[in-house]
């Protein structure tokens, strides 16, 4: 349906209403079995496809129709309505292999979930094969992407190239980098987890036994002790 409005004065304003072939009032469901959050930006909005939480079969995003407009200049605009299904199909054009799909109904069926799982696992298997080939060629971590590592983790396979280094944290006592969840700091010997340290018999001797707070206070106190004046005037 096209509509044109011409004012008595000023430039001509043209309005066009373009609707999709489907029901523009209908809500469409997007299901995801991916463990990753996806954010997709369009001129008519930003869409968040949530990650599928552990223990759940899928995550769901409900898409509704949106309006948009083309600015042609000279006060001329072409507003149009985009149906929910058109939006959903546009959002998923590069995500089908990740286990994300448009549901035929309000919720995904068992067959749809099985098909999405097979499609995703097949995609991950291809990534695994590609990564193995690249690794055999030069053993270079630079050629391995996060997507390759994600595929290995999702399929539950171990690969040398899929190694993900542990994220280091700062010791609250000395500020040095330590592995997360360690009982005692390897640098200043402060106890970071008293329960774990006691369980393994740590915290006695060799400077051990102080908590992180006590170690931090001790370091602060030592830094505030003035140096002894050894000048002749100070000894007189």
Explain what you see.
It is a single chain. By secondary structure, this protein is an alpha+beta fold. The chain has helices at about 85-90, 110-140, 145-155, 195-200, 210-225, 230-235, and strands spanning about 1-5, 15, 30, 40, 45-50, 60-65, 65-75, 75-80, 100, 170, 175-180. The strands form 5 sheets. It has a 3-stranded antiparallel beta sheet, covered by helices on one side. Helix 2 crosses helix 3 (about 145-155).
Q: State which percent range the strand residues make up.
A: 15-25%
Number of contiguous helices: 6
The structural class is alpha+beta
What is the H/E order?
EEEEEEEEHEHHEEHHH
- Mean pLDDT over the full residue set: 79
CA(first)-CA(last) distance: 103 Å
Strand tally, please?
11
Radius of gyration from CA coordinates: 31 Å
Q: Can you list the strand order of the major beta sheet?
A: 6-3-9
Q: Low-confidence runs (pLDDT<50, min 5 residues)?
A: 1-22
Helix content: 25-40%
Q: How would a crystallographer describe the biggest sheet?
A: 3 strands, antiparallel
Task: Give the overall shape, derived from the CA principal axes.
Answer: elongated
């Amino acid at each position: 349906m096209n509509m044109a409005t011409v004012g008595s004065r000023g430039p001509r304003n043209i309005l066009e209403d373009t609707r999709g072939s489907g029901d523009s009032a209908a809500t469409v469901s997007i299901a995801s079995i991916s463990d990753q959050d996806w954010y997709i930006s369009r001129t008519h909005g930003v869409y968040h496809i949530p990650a599928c939480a552990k223990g759940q079969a899928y995550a769901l995003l409900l898409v509704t129709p949106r309006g948009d407009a083309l600015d042609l200049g000279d006060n001329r605009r072409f507003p149009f309505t985009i149906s929910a299904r058109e939006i959903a199909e546009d959002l998923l054009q590069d995500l089908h292999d990740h286990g994300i799909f448009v549901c035929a109904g309000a919720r995904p069926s068992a067959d749809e979930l099985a098909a999405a799982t097979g499609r995703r696992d097949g995609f991950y298997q291809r990534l695994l094969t590609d990564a193995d080939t690249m690794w055999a060629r030069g053993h270079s971590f630079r050629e391995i992407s996060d997507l390759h590592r994600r595929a290995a983790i999702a399929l539950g396979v171990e690969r040398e190239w899929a190694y993900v280094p542990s994220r280091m944290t700062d010791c609250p006592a000395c500020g040095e980098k330590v592995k997360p969840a360690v009982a005692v700091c390897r640098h200043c010997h402060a106890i970071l987890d008293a329960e774990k340290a006691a369980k393994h018999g740590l915290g006695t001797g060799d400077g051990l036994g102080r908590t992180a707070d006590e170690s931090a206070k001790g370091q602060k106190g030592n830094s505030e002790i003035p140096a002894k004046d050894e000048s002749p005037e100070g000894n007189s």
